[in-house]
Write a structure and sequence with these properties.
The chain has 297 residues and is of the alpha/beta class. Helices cover 39% and strands 25% of the residues. The chain has 3 domains: 5-86, Winged helix-like DNA-binding domain superfamily/Winged helix DNA-binding domain (Arc Repressor Mutant, subunit A); 89-160 and 264-289, Periplasmic binding protein-like II (D-Maltodextrin-Binding Protein, domain 2, 3-Layer(aba) Sandwich); 163-259, D-Maltodextrin-Binding Protein, domain 2, CATH 3.40.190.
Length: 297
């Protein structure tokens, strides 16, 4: 039997992650330590709970039955912690990820406020423009705008993240007139992630325009820097250049032709019924305090 709640949580994590390395990252220890703890659990239960190879870990029939019983017990524990958590100080580590640009501009001020509010919670923040596999990487929470292909993940909308077309006044003053997306053929277009097919919506119709240019990057801050230096026209999320627009450093182009990818930003986490209280608190804090700027209608 489980001798502690920690053992119960460890078993459920191993079942859900199917990776000792991922569980070790969450626990801030080594896979060897997790393997020894699992071996001790199997000794205590008197049966093998998982089939393990160098590459895979799968539950045995006994492990499957134990999980079905354990998850109900863990739900009761999480419910207790949620209802009575205010009586004690929430604690533990939250591993989260977001793009470097969004974290720097909008998340870091809120994260520092959250840590001051809950000083026993530790934040491990991985910044990357890549969409990470949060289950395989052992990440508790991701802030992302990309569409999700993994149906096992849960997403809570934080706000809109529309894209806009922009350039400097200096660039526009020395180049061809831009009155329609087709005019982009005559412009140097700065591209993110090799996306040379730009989509627009106008009067309910979708328009596709192929573009070209002499600079492309996989890093959004490099894209914004190139636009600000007058290199050409770029399509970026509005929140990235809101301050530059307000200061007059950049100008919105073709506002009547709305970029087709009107994405939103989400708080994304693994689909499980027993979301830890510390993660619930962070998501709730972001929902209440995060303000994402959008262009005027």
């Amino acid at each position: 039997m489980f001798k502690s709640i920690d053992d119960l949580k460890l078993f459920v994590q191993i079942y859900e992650k199917r990776s000792l390395s991922a569980v070790a990252m969450i626990a801030q220890t080594t896979p060897g330590v997790i393997s020894k703890r699992l071996a001790r659990l199997e000794t205590e239960f008197g049966t093998r709970l998982f089939h393990r190879t160098t590459r895979t870990i799968q539950p045995t029939d006994e492990g499957q039955r134990l999980f079905e019983q354990s998850v109900n017990l863990l739900e009761l524990v999480e419910q207790y912690e949620s209802e009575w958590g205010e009586k004690t100080q929430p604690s533990g580590q939250i591993r989260m990820t977001a793009s470097a640009s969004f974290a720097r501009l909008y998340l870091m001020p809120l994260i520092t406020q959250f840590i001051r509010l809950y000083p026993s919670i530790r934040i491990s923040f991985e910044l990357s423009d890549k969409v990470l596999d949060i289950v395989a990487e052992g990440i508790d929470l991701a802030i992302r705008g990309a569409q999700m292909n993994d149906s096992s993940l849960i997403a809570r909308k934080l706000g809109p993240s529309p894209e806009v077309l922009c350039a400097t006044e200096e660039y526009l003053s020395r180049t061809a007139l831009l009155a329609h997306p087709a005019d982009l053929e005559h412009h140097n277009c700065i591209v993110l992630n090799e996306n040379y097919n730009w989509e627009f919506v106008h009067e309910g119709k979708v328009l596709h325009q192929k573009v070209r240019g002499n600079f492309q990057t996989n890093y959004s801050e490099a894209l914004v820097a190139a636009i600000k230096d007058g290199l050409g026209v770029g399509m970026v999320c509005y929140w990235q250049i809101h301050d530059e627009i307000e200061r007059g450093e950049l100008k919105l182009i073709l506002p009547q032709f709305r970029p087709g990818r009107q994405q939103s930003l989400y708080a994304v986490y693994p689909s499980r019924r027993h979301l830890p209280l510390k993660t619930q608190l962070l998501i709730r804090f972001l929902e209440q305090h995060l303000v994402i700027p959008t262009p005027a209608a």
